[in-house]
Amino acid sequence: MTDKILQRLREALSAADTSEVHSIVEAHHPGDLADHLEFLDTEELRQFSRMIDDEHLVLIMQELDDFAQANLAKVLRRQRLVNNLQDMAPDEAADLLLSVGEDVADELLNRMETADADSVRELMKYPPDSAGGIMTHEYMSLQATLTIGEALEKVRNSSEADVETIYYLYVCNDKGKLVGILSLRELLASKDEETIADVMDTDVISVSVHDDQEEVAQALERYGFLALPVVEDENLVGIVTFDDVISAIEEETTEDIFRQSGISITEMSRSERIIQAPITQILFLRLPWLLVVLVGGLVAGGVIGQYEAMLESILVLAFFIPVIMDMGGNVGTQASTIFVRGIVLGHIDRDKIAYYTLREAAIGLTIGLFTGFGAGAVATFWQGDVMVGLVVFMSMALTCTVASIVGFGVPWIMHRIGADPAAASNPFITTIKDISGLVIYFSIAALLLGHLL
Q: Regarding the domain delimited by 141-241, which CATH topology (the fold level of the hierarchy) does it fall under?
């Protein structure tokens, strides 16, 4: 269905059929249209922007990812882009400006109305992956002295442009300090003559502007809220809604997936950018991590070379190298994935990392004993030599144990030094696991089968 809509849109653009483009825009949700626009080239985007009005354009722009937003912004006239930014929610406008580059962002901000520009600048001062970077200023704030009747009137008079959600109402004192919260349901269920102070909940769960967006996501999941207030020095400065967090975590997950594959995308927040980037840029991003694997492979080859005489004398040893290497690789990758997921979701207590590492080592040993017993039994019956089976069994057990420790420990070290643990998952772990696995295998073989040399 998506392909048909995209094809229909492209045909309408190619034929300069404005009425057909309008029909497509009217018939589909802005989020669905945004998904299609990400596949249009620059000229198609320019044609599309000329054929639709600002009302629809703003709604679609707010649904685009960073890369597509930047592409669309490039084809719009400056003044039209400024007008659209002023019509967007401040947090969405801030995201768009962060995607177009500092110089262009400064120019656009200087051309915006002062109030709108100040609101956007306030959001842009925080790191994009922090609570402050993904929050919005559009929330409903009340004073504790208001009666329920007065509060209801204020809610009725609020427009959709003033607040992003009214499910939660935040209570602040005269100095802006967050002192309470109540839901819209609680407001509607209260008597008109009661005051906000009478019914509000003073035990407010909030996040700091400096909290990482992953911590915000964990808090939303833990408490089952649709939004969380964001405070700075106890003063309410914004809210983070569930949809904002979902978008942020989606981007981080995409980034982690590419990094786990050995691809650095510090400057790329979405997969489309990698797909559409020039070949030279893609090579620049992917080659450095792959060179780590290349160097590791050469070192592993050197290890095999050191035991060339053993392999010539006991040829059967070569048959089990892929089995042991593959099993160690899978165990290491599993351990790494468990660690990265656990640290992101807050399931790993940072003060108990030694316990988790030892536990993972025990799991790796158990896996190695089971799989090693199977592989060792096959080796014994195949070769008719129990010592060959014992070499395979012990090597599998130790390799899986070491792979578990490496798969859990290397990402932890990266996390401790401030690097993204997903970045180390494949290249470094694969390299260390291969070298250590070969050393273990040939060392045990030399110990138990040395008499055959």
A: CBS-domain (3.10.580)
Digit-coded pLDDT (tens) for 390-408: 988 898 889 888 888 888 8
The type of residue at 382 is W
Q: Residue 348 belongs to what H/E stretch?
A: none
Instruction: Name the nearest CA neighbour of 240 among 254, 225, 255.
Output: 225
On whether the CB atoms of residues 48 and 40 are closer than 8 A, the answer is yes
What whole-number distance in Å separates Cα of residue 28 and Cα of residue 6?
A: 12
Note the residue count of the chain: 453
Write out the two tokens for 11: 């045909």
Residue 307 has pLDDT above 50, yes or no: yes
Amino acid, single-letter form, for residue 285: L
Structure tokens at 373: 């017993």
| CATH 1.10.357.20, applies to 278-452 | yes
Nearest-angstrom CA–CA distance, 151 and 149: 5
Contact 424, 411 (CB under 8 A): yes
Closest by CA position to 450, among listed 317, 302, 301, 304: 317
Q: Measured at the alpha carbon of residue 399, what is the angle toward residues 325 and 295, in degrees to the nearest 5?
A: 55
4-18, 134-148, 291-305, 399-413: segment of lowest average pLDDT: 291-305
Q: For the chain, where do the domains classified as CATH 1.25.60.10 start and end?
A: 2-129
Tens of pLDDT, residue by residue over 343-386, are 666 667 767 778 888 888 888 899 889 888 988 888 888 878 88
Distance CA 300, CA 291 (A): 14
Q: Tell me: the pLDDT tens digits for 5-48?
A: 888 888 888 888 889 989 988 988 888 888 888 778 888 888 99
Whether domain 2-129 has CATH 1.10.150.120: no
Is the pTM above the cut of 0.90? no
d(CA 234, CA 253): 31
332: Cα separation from own chain's centroid: 22
